[in-house]
């Protein structure tokens, strides 16, 4: 076997070292790329989790109940008050006084008739109070005192309150009429009323009934067809 010259030997070893170095550089490059990809993936995962956490409070689920009237088949969505201010404060106040007014005006309990009539007049402006007074006078044969007397009882169930404008409301309600020993009779009615707020009443007794000066300006109620 011929001897390898010194020059060839040096060239061989140099080529071997270069090949090993290139392999080491390639492996190191692949490892570095893998770490970069892993780091980017971790950063993207953190960003995604943070984005979901930030958007979660914005996602709300509003449950509702659909109520069906068994007699008429009518449906309506029942909303629930939830949280500190589910609606605006003003709207909640308006709804309260409107519902209270309709219950007092349309309901009947002989023993509380005088107090309820006083409250209705206190919550009506001068013209509407006079119209109401005329409707409940004993001289009016359609007055509740003449129809129900001391044996009848009328309770009011508010079905819905809708605002046609800022000062006009539509109230759909049911009259549950009980007379003597007879079975209760339910009638559906629809009231339209215009309202406003004035200064609170001067006397403490009146402020206990109507603390914010709620007043109905016009009122009309008709049975639903």
Automatic annotation (TrEMBL):
Q: Which residues cross the membrane?
A: 33-55
Please give the biological process terms from Gene Ontology that the record holds: protein secretion by the type IV secretion system
State the CDD domains in the record: VirB8 (cd16424)
Q: Where, per UniProt, does this protein localize?
A: Membrane
Q: Does the keyword Membrane apply?
A: yes
Single GO cellular component annotation?
membrane
Q: How does it sit in the membrane?
A: Single-pass membrane protein
Q: Which residues form the Bacterial virulence protein VirB8 domain?
A: 16-224
Keywords, comma-separated and alphabetical: Membrane, Transmembrane, Transmembrane helix
UniProt main location, coarse: membrane
| Name of the protein this chain belongs to | Conjugal transfer protein TraJ
Organism listed in the record? Sphingomonas zeae
């Amino acid at each position: 076997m011929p001897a390898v010259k010194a020059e060839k030997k040096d060239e061989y070893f140099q080529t071997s070292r270069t090949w090993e170095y290139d392999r080491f550089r390639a492996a190191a490059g692949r490892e570095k790329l893998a770490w970069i990809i892993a780091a980017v993936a971790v950063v993207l995962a953190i960003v995604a989790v943070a984005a979901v956490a930030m958007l979660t409070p914005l996602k709300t689920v509003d449950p509702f109940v659909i109520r069906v009237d068994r007699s008429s088949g009518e449906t309506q969505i029942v909303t629930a008050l939830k949280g500190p201010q589910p609606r605006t404060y003003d709207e909640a106040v308006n709804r309260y006084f409107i519902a209270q007014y309709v219950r007092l005006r349309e309901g009947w309990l002989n023993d509380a008739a005088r107090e309820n009539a006083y409250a209705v007049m206190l919550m009506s402006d001068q013209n509407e109070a006079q119209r109401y007074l005329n409707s409940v006078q004993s001289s009016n044969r359609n007055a509740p005192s003449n129809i129900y007397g001391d044996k009848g009882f009328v309770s009011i169930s508010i079905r819905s309150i809708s605002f046609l404008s800022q000062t006009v409301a539509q109230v759909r309600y049911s009259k549950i009429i009980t007379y003597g020993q007879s079975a209760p009779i339910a009638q559906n009615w629809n009231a339209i009323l215009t309202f406003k707020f004035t200064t609170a009443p001067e006397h403490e007794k009146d402020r206990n009934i109507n603390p914010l000066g709620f007043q109905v300006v016009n009122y009309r109620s008709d049975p639903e067809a």
